[in-house]
Amino acid sequence: MDKTTTGWLSGFLGVLIFSGSLPATRVAVADFDPVFLTAARGTIAGLIALALLVALRERRPGRDDLVSLAIVSLGVVVGFPLLTAIALQHMTSAHSIVFIGLLPLATAIFGVLRGGERPRPAFWAFSCLGSALVVGFAISQGVSAAPLGDALMLAAIIVCGLGYAEGGRLSRKLGGWQVISWALVLSLPVMALVALLTSPATLAGIGGPAWIGLAYVSLFSMLIGFVFWYRGLALGGIAAVGQLQLLQPFFGLALAALLLHEEVNAAMIVVTVAIVACVAGARKFAR
């Protein structure tokens, strides 16, 4: 396989793993405080990442890479997990997942600003169409029902898009799993301290599903998924591979219905199918 195809396959695996993040977070915040959940997942993933870096004797990133790693940490280790965890206290995971349809556009914009990529005009037309469908769906469902949750999800999309693009750019130099590992290690001291300060007074009331949700977002959402995702962005292009995120609502809605028994109405399915259809057009004109 050529580099581009390998990048798309790797990116697809990353999206497939990320699709379980919001349903898992929704389950976890039923029993865990959002701040603790964010810090705990970062701490667990950070300790594993530190062990991998030490065991494999990875070379430390250069001083000029620290700013980029800090952006990755703030975007995907702290910002997106915290904002989505709080948002999911005000909405169902099925509703929040649809906002993920905005991530390809945010990632592509930051790919231009930070990665120096230059997609063709037709690419932006397809990407904006997918985003418009998502926003239109949110409005049709009545954003006034959860204005705080919607605002938090939009903020999460912006910081996540920046973290994705910055990580994809840096992965060309350091490698995909190295970028997320160093970003986790960089934030580990703060995350560990916050996790300790916000830990539950007792674990007696924490149910099994919440522990499973914490385990998933710590191991898969925070570390394993990024190994594939950043590799995909580095090999296939940030803007191009980023369009695969349009598939994430489809997978996420299916998980929300199967695992959480949340209602997935016809409008959600129609919008999801429509934005997935935008992937082909956006991919064709990405370069």
UniProtKB/TrEMBL annotation:
<feature type="domain" description="EamA">
    <location>
        <begin position="148"/>
        <end position="279"/>
    </location>
</feature>
<dbReference type="InterPro" id="IPR037185">
    <property type="entry name" value="EmrE-like"/>
</dbReference>
<keyword id="KW-0812">Transmembrane</keyword>
<keyword id="KW-0472">Membrane</keyword>
<dbReference type="InterPro" id="IPR050638">
    <property type="entry name" value="AA-Vitamin_Transporters"/>
</dbReference>
<dbReference type="Pfam" id="PF00892">
    <property type="entry name" value="EamA"/>
</dbReference>
<feature type="transmembrane region" description="Helical">
    <location>
        <begin position="266"/>
        <end position="286"/>
    </location>
</feature>
<dbReference type="InterPro" id="IPR000620">
    <property type="entry name" value="EamA_dom"/>
</dbReference>
<feature type="transmembrane region" description="Helical">
    <location>
        <begin position="210"/>
        <end position="230"/>
    </location>
</feature>
<feature type="transmembrane region" description="Helical">
    <location>
        <begin position="94"/>
        <end position="113"/>
    </location>
</feature>
<comment type="similarity">
    <text>Belongs to the EamA transporter family.</text>
</comment>
<feature type="transmembrane region" description="Helical">
    <location>
        <begin position="237"/>
        <end position="260"/>
    </location>
</feature>
<feature type="transmembrane region" description="Helical">
    <location>
        <begin position="177"/>
        <end position="198"/>
    </location>
</feature>
<feature type="transmembrane region" description="Helical">
    <location>
        <begin position="35"/>
        <end position="54"/>
    </location>
</feature>
<feature type="transmembrane region" description="Helical">
    <location>
        <begin position="145"/>
        <end position="165"/>
    </location>
</feature>
<protein>
    <submittedName>
        <fullName>Drug/metabolite transporter (DMT)-like permease</fullName>
    </submittedName>
</protein>
<feature type="domain" description="EamA">
    <location>
        <begin position="7"/>
        <end position="130"/>
    </location>
</feature>
<dbReference type="GO" id="GO:0016020">
    <property type="term" value="C:membrane"/>
</dbReference>
<feature type="transmembrane region" description="Helical">
    <location>
        <begin position="122"/>
        <end position="139"/>
    </location>
</feature>
<feature type="transmembrane region" description="Helical">
    <location>
        <begin position="66"/>
        <end position="88"/>
    </location>
</feature>
<feature type="transmembrane region" description="Helical">
    <location>
        <begin position="7"/>
        <end position="29"/>
    </location>
</feature>
<keyword id="KW-1133">Transmembrane helix</keyword>
